[in-house]
Write a structure and sequence with these properties.
Helix content is 28%, strand content 17%. It contains twelve helices and 17 strands. Helix 10 links the parallel strand 11 and strand 12. Helix 3 crosses helix 6. The longest helix is centred in the last third of the chain and has 20 residues.
Amino acid sequence: MTGTKRILICDLVGLAFNALGQPDPSEVKAHIEARGGLFHPGLWRAQAPLAADRLHFFYAPDLARAEDFISVAGQGQYDAVIAAATTVPEACHFAEGGVRMGTGTGNMQSASWGGPNGLGGTAPLMNTPGFNARATAHMVMKALFHFLPSLPLGLLHERVLAGRFDTARHLRDFPTHGLAGRRMAIAGFGNIGRTVARLARAFGMEPVIYSRPHHRAKIEAEGFRFARSIEAAAEGADVVSLHVGLGQRAADGRFENAGMLDGGTFAVMNPGATVINFDRGECVNEAALEAALASGQVAQVAIDADIFVDEKTGGVSGPLAPYVALARRFPGRVLLLPHAAADTDHPSRVAAAKQAVDQIIAAMTTRTVHNLKGDLPAGYVSGGAVLPPELQA
């Protein structure tokens, strides 16, 4: 046995409400107990006795601020951590590793595994790729349908109710252009990008995929067009959707995919294009996007990214914050979501949390690491990737 271990769960592991109107963690609690672990609501208290030689999972999903996180986990109080959107500070150490529920690990900043890329640490950094792929892809299509086809459903509904619409006389005033035949540039062919491409094709669209060269064979095997650059994919595109992540971080602190959609990319799209960024807010050059919206080169944009509000000052921060002014300048053309596309699907969150628990147990009991992000620390063995069933094809 591994001895007595403490694991912090710092994000919700159930989004559906229970009888008390609170997010319900009971499915994950039952899974932990079935695996021989113990589930504790709330934080660990040093004076509280713990059963020996057991894995203790402490559920504290309200650690939104870095200072709060550091105050309860900054002295090595926990051996491992499971997180989703909460930022795990660099100063908090977890000797047995961490798992991010989802794919991107930009919020997993602990020095224990070498920061968000998992490079050079002494503990493993893991993720649970694919569980939110379907939910995110569906939300990408929902955002697309928000803008296209451009039939104003709400307006027509209100005019019908008000007795101000006659089909024979007024319907001709609302010409639309459907999705079939439109070109959709998709950046990235991971679990999400691949699912979006399949959905787009189902609606008769023409997906063009920009991804790393080693993905070309897989892309073309599925019958999609491969592009060597984001500009090549975006040329003549009616819709552009990003699914690449921020990529590696350079010595100057800049991520390789920051600002990848810029003025040059916007210029080669079809006039009046739609941009969807349900990836990372930083992947778009904000000044270039503002200019493209002003000129009409980009007709509308949907952004899904983190945003935080300071409870004391009311100030907002995070990658979505710069787009708030843009939405006010171009009302009805800029749709903002607070990183909700992937994180509001209850079954996905529960499934990802269960796998995160399994991965922590495997790392602690057999030193086997599944879905490793970055370097494999000494003393561990790789167990390879684990994907949800729908993505294993």
